[in-house]
Sequence to fold (442 residues):
Amino acid sequence: MSEYRFLPLELLKSITSDELPSIAQALRNLEDNCLAERRGDYFQVSAPLRDAIRRDKRFDRDERWRQKVASIIANTLSEYKNEDHVPVALLESGVLASIKGGKSPNFVASLILPSHLLSIARSFYDKRQLKDCIDFCKRAYELNTRLTLDAQVEVLRLWGLSLARKHEVADLESVVLAKLRQIDTRTARKNMLFLEGFSLRLRKDFEGAEGKLIESWKLGKENQSVNREIASLLCKQRRYSEAEGYARSAYRTAPTNPFIIDILAEILLGKAAHGLRIDQAELTKLIGELRIYGDAPGSSFFLIRQAQEYARDRKFPQALQAVSKAIDRTPTLLPPYFIRAEILLGLNDIAGVEKDLQEIERLLEQAGGFSEGDEIRLHELQAKVLLEKRQFRQAMTKIDTSAFLTKAMKKRLLTVLAKTIGAVGEGAADRQMVAWAKAYAK
Fold:
């Protein structure tokens, strides 16, 4: 039902190979719990759940399963004769099945609209199947004369996001952005600026990214994607107070989106860690919402923020338990490793920190070195480890030569370096290092 918007009872029987009474009972249970809706003889997932299902990895199915369902739907349509009346809702499913590889009758293929292609492109993007997303965006845009201007912009937006994530900058500029520049609407300009900023952020040009994203924000201040992107960018740089307003705007627009709840919770936890005042009751509420909307197999939103909160309260065993569970759930996600490394640093387990940093570097290398700003956290932690090991000269070199640490972060770390050397130093060489660190900090 999440793959195909409308399905009749008989078709569900063919797909599941189950008995009609069993299927009918299951559908009644879904209806009773407001999870499904009936439209005549057809059933669909309730509207408020569609986005949640789209984001929840528990509903993911492999390509073999999709091909099987598409074939069943296509075969059902093939049984209709020329004089038969084919229900419109079934045609909709047949069109999607045809696009997904089912061998539907010729008349079904002729009903394919660019909106169908766009819908499938969006599902591929959500699953980060970027090449497939790009292919379907291209097919949809070939039919752009049958699309409204806003629909054309949406196709180009998905196409551009996929190219940016694949770091195909030349195609992004010469194809997608060039086409957006030809559409003279506020929506087109807003999305063009957003894509430019998004691409710059992925390429580590944070100042350039911030400028483009702010320009995009000015054209749509309530846009949740723009607000979240700016909030995330500022949060990565520890600019929590600046990030908070953008995160709150996104939260007002989409209060059940786990990505947006998560960024606001991260900002409040960051502020608290830097000694800034926050509303503890609000933070507790947000973490509770993450449990509701973001605690599921394949998702670690709730566990990550719970671990941070435990660590802030110096409940280190509980923090380590929560973050280790998050790593088990999402072993290729970087934030849990950073949080565990920071917890272990607080416990002075330097060997444990170094082990996590090695895993972070491995994951970064596996991803081609791009991780949307996580190199900042890596370099900061590496510098802190060198300070803990009293390797002051190496720490200074690391801080001074890092291409990822911002000026404010370098100044803060060098100030810590100077204080640490001053506390443990014993000779003229140490005093010289303190002088160098203070000079660099300025």
In short: Residues 80 and 86 are 7 Å apart (CA to CA). Residues 81-86, 107-111 have pLDDT under 50 and may be disordered. The two ends are 61 Å apart (CA to CA).
